[in-house]
Input
Amino acid sequence: MHMKANPWKISEDLLEHLLHYVPSQGPIKDFIHHNTLHAFQKEKFDSGVLRAARLFGANPRLHPSEFREFQKAGRLSDECLKAFGLERIPEDPTPAPGGWVQDGIRVPGFQSSGVDILQKTRGPLFRILANYLDQGVAAHSHRSFPRFWDWLSHYFEGKALNFELLGHPYLQAALKKEPLAVIEESLPLLLDRPEYSARYLLEILLGHPGWSGLVHQVERKPEGLFDAKPITIVEFLALEIALDVAVSREIKGFTAFQGKGLPTDPREIDSTETATEKSLRLAQEALEWSFYLRKITKIEANATNPLPQRNNHVQVFFCIDDRECSIRRHLERLDEHVSTYGAAGFFGLDCKILEAGYPYMVQSCPVVLTPKVLIEEEFIETPEESFTRQMPEHHHHHLSRTYTHPLKAWVNSFWKGLQLSRDLVSQVFHPTAQEAEKPTRLKIHYSGERDGMRLGYTRQEMADRVFSVLRNVGFKREFSKLVIIMGHESSSNNNPHYAAYDCGACSGRTGAQNARAFAMMANDPEVRKMLIEKGLPLPQDCWFVGAVHNTTRDEVRYFDVQDIPDHIQLLFAPFLRTFEKALALNAKERTAKFDLFSKNGTPEQAHDHVRLRSVALFEPRPELNHATNAMCVVGRRKLTMGQNFDRRSFLHSYDPSTDPDGQVLTGILNAVVPVCGGINLEYYFSRMDNQVYGAGTKLPHNVVGLFGVSNGVIGDLRTGLPSQMIEVHDPLRLLIIVEQELSTALLAVKRNPATYEWIQNEWVHYACYNTADHKVYRLQGEEWKRVIP
Amino acid sequence: MIGLFVVFLPLVVSALLLIFYRAPEDRVGSWLNLYSWLGISLTLVLLLGRAFGVLPELVDEGLWFQELGVPVETDFLFDLKALCLIGLSSFLFWIILRFARVYMHREAGFHRFFRTLLLSHFGLNMIATAGNFELFFIGWEVLGLSSFLLIGFYRDRATPVLNAFKIYCVYRICDIGILMSGFVIHHEFGLGGQFPELSPSKISHMVSAEPVMAAILGASILLAALGKSAQFPFSFWLPRALEGPTPSSAVFYGALSIHAGVYLLLRTQAIWSSIPYVSFFVFLFGGMSVLVGTMSGRAQANIKGQIGYASVAQVGIMLMEVALGWNDLALLHLCTHAILRAYQFLTSPSIVAHFIRHPVRDQHQSGFGFFRRPWMRRLSVGEFFIEEFWNRVLVRPVMSLGSSIPLLALLLLGLSYGLWSLGSSLKVYLVMSGAFVLSIRAISRKSPKEAILFSFVSMMLVIYSGTRGFLDPETFRLFLWVMIAGALLWLSGQEKLKFLAWLVFAGFPISPFFLGEELLLQHLGDEGFFALTLFFGTFILNGLVLIRSFLQETWLAQARPLD
Output
């Protein structure tokens, strides 16, 4: 007999679809910027934003009053408003929609029986999840189990305790079955019709998006937790849905929830906009173009202004990062013999890096790549004492678990309390950080395999990588004697979000080792020979120096300085002095945005101030990071040189004359669009609704399990950026301006559908500085339009 | 005098911040800087002055104020205990103000944070130096109020507000202990107000004379201490309280407020040590707290919860020390431990950066197999299910009882009162019971308006029954006016005025109601224990009804549900 298919069956595809809607932020140590609304990227930006707002219960746009403030401050021009057909900014405020969780089946359903399901279950649920996944906060840790489900069975061994919500007989029975079966059996007990299964599961997931996202990420990338804790989203859902049933059993006269005709899939959400929403969309576009036009005017002006010919004595490669925008300007202004270039800060090295003194290896290239090569750093002399560099250490953390032991804490508290009273005074009045740097070396040459990773590159691979980076920036003829490869990093104290401040192209790590390795490769005589074969003859006396710019402290570390030949030293010494001055000027420019620094301070005072910020325990804003980022220029430095872009632009060097068919440009855009677009949209949405898309203020944050932060002790994990990182950010989509012929520019971007999707759906704006007529055009649909409205 | 200056300076600055609530942040910052230096310098002068015997130990400024026949004496004690606590809190506030000045930069509610923080500093100073129960209670309530305000500092989210309410409930129940102790000492024992006068010999004399009252006294002090210090069986509130900005968590739950219970026991040791079994119970609850705090703390996978529970365990040890009479050790333990935990809280966000560099992967298990049993593990992770316990034995029964009391029963109660001519004392009981039942009904009402109506009626009944025959009509009229004024404030719809109205009705020590309560208490004492229970029950419930309605109508109405 033919069996009728179970209508409550949950398919893999369905789960996969639902999981698009949970945040894709992994453990906080690997903070990687990405588009917060990645689930909606397949559709147009404007409809995606509205749909997401209605799903998550977020504000889709800025409040009208904020637009009025922009208008008052002159950042939203009346011409642009008019050009977009908006007479005035709407008066009435738009309350954020309720979202699926609040206006759905589950929460209101339980509410009608007087149960606040979110408040009731989050405590027990988050506590055992955190306890299981914990990476080292709790003093009692668990031995590992092959599955979360097995651990749960072990955890609930024996008789359930009184008062234990999780000890409910339904849940205990469920643990004896397979998780997927538990979901399929529990749904009919809660819902009257199977159509709403998907919606119900999504409401569960979005009831605590932070935890759902973390579990999903751990399932996808178990190596993200260095202490492996296997868990799947199915197990997590099964536990929670069984808990829902357990709660429903305690309600007298409980009847299954009715769907009441609500949409069953987020794709069914109505995205038609109201009149107010339309006005706000236009206001947003006007705000974006008010800014873009000011900058485009500068770029077009540069094209017609002849720039003085520069003698390239020193060339410096920076990361494309918007924070390097200003230091390049200061450096060029101070010394006309210095030229600067921008390239993605991993410098083409698709590798993982094991830093000396670090317990585990980290990916040091964009997150879209899967590196197979490991580069190790090792101490030249093995030091006994612990290695500390930029991050100040708090010795008491070694003892933090000891302090939970009643007797040890009792004994310790007497002398430790006295000692720490002294530390409190010094940390508050004279914040300092220990800095003890040991000489290290980098093992870049191929030396076998280990744990499925290849150790080091072969010479041929090195030559390929050096060649592709130098080709990308159009670096063919004009070599200097001294080339500095400058990665970047940051340093902050008392900051769980520290990884969000480092180099985005290095997956939120320091770019130091990449820069250092690149310079070593480029200096290798064998590699030089291979480069000549590839048609890139580097002069004999040209020398590369790896360095890293600390964007918080405005300090630079140079690597392998002892290897620099003497004749290059003559160039290097004056360059160091110039760079020191540029760093101070850069610090001064940055402090203009810090209220706590006097506007009349000298560059040296500003430099001291930013150094203080990087070590102070009490500083929630060590630096402003990518805040205010708004555009990205891919082209020759000529377009932007001498103009103040106010640290708002990513700058990638590219010479259209060396790339007639746009192949190089395609390669650049493949990296630039997802990395810069991801950074930009994470800031955009965190600013748009800091409670839903962002992490809220970081001041009450509490570190959970070393993998996340929550508000208080049993809050959901917070994803996105804290308010301190986005408060000065104007939410503008990224405008990418490439220097090319119009047709080539279009061809280049359409080669990769994944890249083109961002542009086609308007998640970033794409414009072209036409080399034919020196004007900027904007891509609309598939047509180029002049940008001036 | 300099001592009083040290005590009251934070209150003055807090009031200034309230008045100049629109002052720009940098100006407030420089005031705070000035204040932090002034505060620490004055404290040093005070400490030196006392050390060299220049300043007196007891400052008695005579009668502070007397209203409705209730005298509040200004007795300030600057003995070793007080100086230790004053020194400790001045030091920590000096640090925290510097810290928070930058930490709170640009935060919405910057002024509010500092004025509340300074209010709590004043509360602590009052607790430290209070020479009698009235002043101690004032300090105690000020500390509780500022604690409530800082837990609910982020009013745009629902969880902090709900947690602040939960903790306020615990405080309100436990704080009755202080009021009760003062009442027993003064009214039942007829002893003088100043702490130094309460010698063990006097107390033991009274203990043998009135053993029941003595037991109540002992239980009251213990209740107040356990509640304020988050000891077993109230330890569940501590992790719920860690919702405010990190510096406020450091001050309250790491460093100062959590030790207030220990300080109460130290201060009143002469009293409770003369009552049989109290020391034993102090030791017992201390020991239980060590167990609960340690096991819960070691299972916490979040850093603030871990530090919080670890503090609970250490405070438990302090209680044991105090019970054994090792007072100096307990005092030293208190001071050093406060600094340790403050430091741990302040640096808690850096734990990610630290452990990522230095992972510790040892399976750090407790020594005994007993602690590794699955059910013990569950007990630890579930924080011993203390919150669930209270929900089941107290919250849910009261709520379901309230919703099942028919209004008809109350009407019958009223009718019986009117129809039968009963003795005066019996009538008082009847009205008090009616009021109490009304309060229970009020707390179970979901609608704020209805709840307020019931609680108002019950308050009127309490006042009416309490004052019958004791108060002159003039005083009764005064009460009426206060109630009307309060009601008008509430109805104004303004959040701040409403809050003020709540303070008035909840019997916060600044309001005439507080004095009224003292007065009622004194008269009700004659009616016996049952009347007292009814009175306190009504008092607790009405305060809770009002604050819950306040929160529902103001903060929670604007808060976003998801966080």
About this structure: Chain B touches chain A through 100 residues (CB under 8 Å). The beta strands of chain B are 58-67, 70-77.
